Amino acid sequence: MPRGLFITLEGLDGSGKTTQIKRLAAWMSKRGLPAVQTRQPGGTATGDRIRALLLDARTTEIAPMTEMALMFADRAQAIAEVIQPALDAGRMVLCDRFTDSTEAYQGGGRGLGSDVVLALHRLICGDLQPDLTLLLLPGLEASLSRARRRNDRVEEQTGASEGRFEQEQDEFYRRVWQKYREIAAREPQRVVLIEGDLTVEEVHEQIVEAVAERLVLASQLS
């Protein structure tokens, strides 16, 4: 049985990933291509507990290396429990964030560098690579404003806040943004960069075009 297609969505908080992954899943389902959807951190019972710790705005004083280790612990569980079984069964997987996020946020934002992130990915994740990564990079200011408004709204509604990263200064996010661009430049065959302050529909159209091309390529190779 051919391995399933592994697609990841990446970008800053507030870039519209959640909206776009839902629209992409619906587009695929209509074409008889239902996909397993997951997210990182989270997506498993263990991962959700790690997510609660990492994203809770009340969590303080996590060392950068600890933060990165927790991200990879979550990822290892997701691969073992969700991602690899689905791919082995020939199913498609849509994942909201993967190791590119760790390279951008911990490698770039926290200043740990790319080498340690990529080394841990090879060791802990068996160097599992997405077949296609859709990188959403609208303007930095617009992304942060949307993310902070969203977290305020969620906190008002639920009393829970996942805004720990949004508390960082803009310089942190400039480093994240730049690292994402470095990843896209380094791996143009895998990463499709969708940048600028586009409408939801414009982003969706670019995503669908990229996915359709990758599906054709996958069918030719199978």
What is the fold's blueprint, element by element?
Blueprint: E1 6-11, H1 17-30, E2 35-39, H2 45-55, H3 64-88, E3 92-96, H4 99-109, H5 114-124, E4 132-137, H6 140-158, H7 170-186, E5 191-195, H8 200-221
Parallel strand pairs: 1-3, 1-4, 2-3, 4-5
Helix pairs in contact: 1-8, 2-3, 3-5, 4-5, 4-7
Question: Can you describe what's shown?
Answer:
The protein has 222 residues and is of the alpha/beta class. The chain has a single domain (6-221), classed as P-loop containing nucleotide triphosphate hydrolases (Rossmann fold). It contains 8 helices and 5 strands; from the N terminus they run βαβααβααβααβα. The chain has helices at residues 17-30, 45-55, 64-88, 99-109, 114-124, 140-158, 170-186, 200-221, and strands spanning 6-11, 35-39, 92-96, 132-137, 191-195. A 5-stranded parallel sheet has the order 2-3-1-4-5, with helices on both faces. Helix 2 runs antiparallel to helix 3 and helix 3 crosses helix 5. The longest helix has 25 residues, at 64-88. The radius of gyration is 17 Å and the shape is globular.
